[in-house]
Amino acid sequence: MVKLVALYKKPEDVEAFLKHYREVHTPLVKKTPGLERLEVSMIKADAFGGEPPYFMMAEMYYRDWETFNAAMKSEENKAAGKDLMSFAKGLVTLLVAEVEE
Amino acid sequence: MVKLVALYKKPEDVEAFLKHYREVHTPLVKKTPGLERLEVSMIKADAFGGEPPYFMMAEMYYRDWETFNAAMKSEENKAAGKDLMSFAKGLVTLLVAEVEE
């Protein structure tokens, strides 16, 4: 499987961020063609101590590279990307990963 | 679920790193009591371009906080942690996350 991994730094207004993420962004992400699964996790601690470098992680799973590439080119993904930049610019690191096995 | 998320920067000797990770480290991690699932992913790209900040990610899933905390205190986990520091010191970021839903 291929997944898009979004790592978010802690925003200034956590409540507003989460509200937008859940009410506006997530529905857009879920419209992306071929999305198999969305896993969202709240980062609670850095195991080595101190403030964790990230606040939240979202992983969007696609069956294979073909499906992933098609999804990334879709209008639905463009809308999700545009929305992302509207509330998470400067906060988000977006990585493309290949899941082993 | 609760998961330990290990984000690894790219090592100097990728081949040696992966050999150690797969042949020595992974068996130790899998001995950790209560580990439900280990998901390893290779980071292939930074969606915004440039070199991705990480090379590999490993996620270790536990059923709940009680199981996770017990696992972290275990002798097996101590062995895995000691091994981690032997080959990944300076490379690894280790986060504790709570999976939504």
**Per CATH, what is the topology of chain A?**
Alpha-Beta Plaits
Helix-and-strand structural type of chain A: alpha+beta
Number of helices of chain A: 3
Residue windows where pLDDT falls under 50 for at least 5 positions of chain A? none
Oligomer: homodimer
- Per DSSP E runs of 2 or more residues, the count of β-strands of chain A stands at 4
From N to C, what is the helix and strand string of chain A?
A: EHEEHHE
The most extensive contact between chains is: A-B, 26 and 26 residues
Number of domains of chain A: 1
Biggest sheet strand order of chain A reads 2-3-1-4
Large-scale geometry of chain A:
globular
- End-to-end Cα distance of chain A, whole Å, is 8 Å
For the sheet with most strands of chain A, the description reads: 4 strands, antiparallel
Mean pLDDT across all residues of chain A, rounded?
A: 97
What does this structure look like?
Chain A is an alpha+beta fold. The first copy, chain A, has one domain: Alpha-Beta Plaits (2-Layer Sandwich), CATH 3.30.70. The first copy, chain A, has three helices and four strands; from the N terminus they run E-H-E-E-H-H-E. Chain A has helices spanning 14-30, 65-73, 75-88; strands at 2-8, 35-46, 56-62, 92-99. Chain A has a four-stranded antiparallel beta sheet with strand order 2-3-1-4. Chain A is globular, with a radius of gyration of 14 Å. The termini of chain A are close together. The model of chain A has no long low-confidence stretch (mean pLDDT 97). The A-B interface holds A 3-5, 39-48, 52-54, 57, 93-101 and B 3-5, 39-48, 52-54, 57, 93-101. Strand 2 of chain A pairs antiparallel with strand 4 of chain B.
